[in-house]
Design a protein that fits this description.
The structure holds two protein chains of two kinds.
Chain A: H1 2-6, H2 10-26, E1 34-36, E2 39-41, H3 43-66, H4 74-91, H5 98-126, H6 130-149, E3 153-155, H7 159-166, E4 168-169, E5 172-173, H8 174-192, H9 195-204, H10 206-211, H11 216-241, E6 244-246, H12 254-264, H13 276-296, H14 303-318, H15 320-326, H16 339-347
Antiparallel strand pairs in A: 1-2, 3-6, 4-5
Chain B: H1 2-21, E1 45-50, H2 56-72, E2 75-80, H3 85-97, E3 102-105, H4 114-122, E4 127-130, E5 144-147, H5 150-164, E6 172-178, H6 184-197, E7 203-210, H7 215-228, E8 234-237, H8 240-252, E9 262-267, H9 270-277, E10 283-286, H10 292-303, E11 311-313, E12 318-320, H11 321-327
Parallel strand pairs in B: 1-2, 1-3, 3-4, 4-5, 5-11, 6-7, 6-8, 8-9, 9-10
Antiparallel strand pairs in B: 10-12
The chains are: A mainly alpha, B alpha/beta.
Pfam families (chain B): Peripla_BP_4 (PF13407)
Protein name (chain B): Monosaccharide ABC transporter substrate-binding protein, CUT2 family
GO cellular component, one term (chain B): cell envelope
């Protein structure tokens, strides 16, 4: 029992279950999943479907944060990737041609990686602090996206492009399949190979890692490029879901949601250690919260307050120091030897 | 293509220097033309401070003002504030220094304009607000406010709905996609619509959430509505984009937009009008960006010292599906 309680994903799971229970009480048929038009249909499917871009962005963000960095530019990359892909597709003579859509998607993803490499270059090559280095692209990127689309919302009529974010494959939303593949690959690369260890070591102490023979610079650049790629895929999903690119609003503030997802998932902002499953849980909590707000009908004026309250509770409940203070009398005192370890957790 | 690429590079470079040095002087909104001076050749000089270019609506608005100024023989000095109040204040100050005859602008936000408007007043330059209002207590600071009446737009939407269902006794379940919480169009379209609809107890607004005026949010919120409310008869979306997103959600749920669920939106953008002509939207209340002609007339009157009303409403109409098919080929935006 105490082992389950101490597991670092225990509290995020509790919060997710609590949110779902809230819906069980307030919303009829929240857990009903049916087949409609040959695919699965229901609120739970929606949470995964609309949460998919956030999970992707947060996955990239997790690795960046594990190197004790941060990437504020993901929202802009989301907008740029969607804008470029839609622009290319709208120039096609046959918008449904698979080859044309694939090339548009390819170009958008290549650009996303290039933008990620640019961030990595600024951070690792020049040594600018990550928050400043990525702020540049965060500010400039939206302008780029607007330039690509001429400040307009670009609409495309392409059923092949639509598949990425709004389509279904084997009754499942295609976006979920993409997320599953990306997650599986990331988990394999970081947990089965040594890459995860290298990332954590760079995050723990970049200089010590370098002296130990790890190419800290290479690891950093790669991680930012990967984060750019994830954001790019998310951007394609978001724009494909509504068959249009909106340079102004696509992925607006998604960087903050992604950072929040990472933090809820138990990855400390100080870097050095990360949890992919925690991040996925964190992203699902955020999306469930959003869907809950729509379903139970929280008035729009108080939506932000409601979100803030839930997030505050989530963060407090995850802090061992807070739990120790509040539930002090019911439990035996925390042994002093574990104190430094727990302090790291509080900063999460 | 080459032009676009070079423009991209240039924009990137500019943005970089801006972010790099963080100087307060960057991006003065392109108001730096120095020709200046009042009406030497008898031409009226107007300084116009635009919000930015955030939507197709705004682009059409800008283009119309530039074209009508040329037609009316008014010398237009134009600046783009890129959604930032400080840029707009800077642009207005530069117009005051250049001693233009009249200043017009669409305020980015409602508050914080008293100081700069006082400066204009002291320089005896009349000010016309377009499209958006300011919340200043002192209405003598500007001559007139030319713009849409969002409450009226909401009422028009509600009235159409009441007329559609006037022979029916059954309950009508309405869901509402609101604009960005706290924005004037969202507040006013909501209250105008609800005022008309609530007069009849058979209309029920069963759910109302913000879709932030975007397609993506409109779709997401509508998906949730469709699941938590099985019987939706009518959707009222505060702009076309949210309506277009919602249409996708409705189609995904196996229902027919325009038939199973009637859809009313506002704005009448090109994509919205297309959907209306295709029968996916039932009714659109126009929010007209083509206010240039009215603005130029007002400007001439104001400069000549004639009296103008404190509030001028832009000429706006509504569109049914048949009307959309007719006007669609000749729409400017």
């Amino acid at each position: 029992m105490s082992r389950i309680l101490k597991h670092r994903l225990f509290w995020p799971v509790v919060v997710l279950v609590a949110l779902l229970l809230l819906n069980l009480v307030f919303t009829d048929g929240f857990f009903r999943i049916e087949m409609k038009e040959g695919h699965l249909y229901g609120s739970l499917i929606d949470i995964f479907r609309f949460g998919a871009p956030l999970i992707l962005v947060a996955t990239g963000m997790t690795l960046v944060i594990a190197t004790s960095g941060i990437d504020l530019s993901v929202g802009s990359v989301v907008a740029i990737a969607g804008a470029l892909a839609c622009m290319r597709i709208s120039d096609l003579s046959d918008q449904n041609s698979v080859a044309g859509v694939l090339s548009a998607v390819g170009i958008a993803l290549v650009l996303s990686v290039v933008l990620g490499l640019w961030n990595g270059f600024l951070v690792a090559g020049i040594g600018i602090q990550p928050i400043i280095a990525t702020l540049i692209l965060m500010v400039a990127g939206r302008g780029l996206a607007q330039l690509i689309t001429d400040g307009q919302i670009t609409t495309v009529q392409s059923s092949s492009y639509k598949l990425i974010g709004g389509g279904y494959w084997l009754t499942l939303p295609f976006g979920i399949i993409i997320v599953a593949v990306v997650l599986a690959l990331t988990a394999f690369l970081t947990r089965r190979l040594a890459l995860g260890l290298l990332i954590e070591s760079v995050g723990g102490n970049a200089e010590a890692s370098r002296l130990a023979g790890i190419s800290a610079r290479g690891v950093l650049i790669m991680v930012y490029a990967f984060c750019g790629l994830c954001a790019g895929i998310a951007g394609l999903m978001i724009s494909s879901n509504v068959s249009s690119a909106d340079g102004n609003n696509a992925g607006l503030w998604i960087e903050l949601d992604a950072i929040l997802a990472v933090v809820i998932g138990g990855t400390p902002l100080s870097g050095g250690r990360f949890s992919l499953s925690g991040t996925v849980l964190g992203a699902l909590i955020i999306q469930t919260l959003t869907t809950t707000i729509y379903s139970i009908g929280v008035p729009p004026e108080t939506t932000l307050l409601f979100k803030a309250l839930v997030v505050t509770i989530v963060c407090l409940i995850q802090s061992p120091a807070f739990r120790a203070k509040v539930f002090h009398r019911r439990r035996r005192p925390v042994p002093a030897s574990t104190a430094p370890e727990e302090k790291v957790r509080v900063s999460a | 293509m080459l032009k676009r690429i070079s423009a991209l590079i240039l924009a990137g470079a500019t943005a970089l220097t801006m972010a790099g040095c963080g100087s307060s002087d960057s991006g003065s909104g392109g108001s730096g033309d120095s020709s200046g001076g009042g009406a030497k050749d008898g031409k009226i000089v107007m300084g116009f401070a635009q919000v930015g270019a955030e939507s197709g609506w705004r682009t059409a608005n800008t283009k119309d003002i530039q074209e009508t100024a040329k037609e009316a023989g008014i010398d237009l000095k134009f600046s783009d504030a890129q959604q930032k109040q400080e840029n707009q204040i800077k642009a207005i100050r530069s117009y005051i220094q250049q001693k233009v005859d009249v200043i017009a602008f669409s305020p980015v936000v409602e508050s914080g304009w008293d100081t700069v408007l006082k400066e204009a007043q002291n320089a005896k330059i009349p000010v016309i607000l377009t499209d958006r209002a300011v919340d200043s207590q002192d209405t003598s600071l500007y001559k007139t406010f030319l713009g849409s009446d969002f409450i009226e737009e909401g009422k028009k939407a509600g009235q159409w709905l009441v007329d559609q269902y006037k022979d029916s006794k059954d309950d009508v379940n309405i869901v509402q996609l609101e604009g960005t919480t706290g924005s004037a169009p969202a507040n006013d379209r909501k209250s105008g619509f609800e005022e008309v609809v609530k007069a009849d107890p058979k209309f029920h607004i069963i759910a109302s959430q913000s879709g932030d005026f975007t397609r993506a949010k409109g779709k997401e919120v509508m998906e949730a509505f469709l699941k938590s409310n099985p019987d939706i008869d009518v959707l009222w979306a505060h702009n076309d984009d949210m309506g277009l997103g919602a249409i996708e959600a409705i189609e995904g749920a196996g229902k027919v937009p325009g038939k199973d669920i009637k859809i009313i939106t506002a704005d009448a953008t090109h994509d919205g009008m297309q959907a209306l002509a295709d029968g996916k939207i039932n009714f659109i209340v126009e929010c007209n960006p083509l206010m240039g002609k009215q603005l130029m007339e007002l400007a001439k009157k104001v400069v000549n010292g004639e009296q103008v009303p404190q509030r001028v409403v832009t000429e706006e109409t509504t569109f049914t599906q048949e009307q959309a098919k007719e006007v669609l080929p000749s729409r400017k935006y």
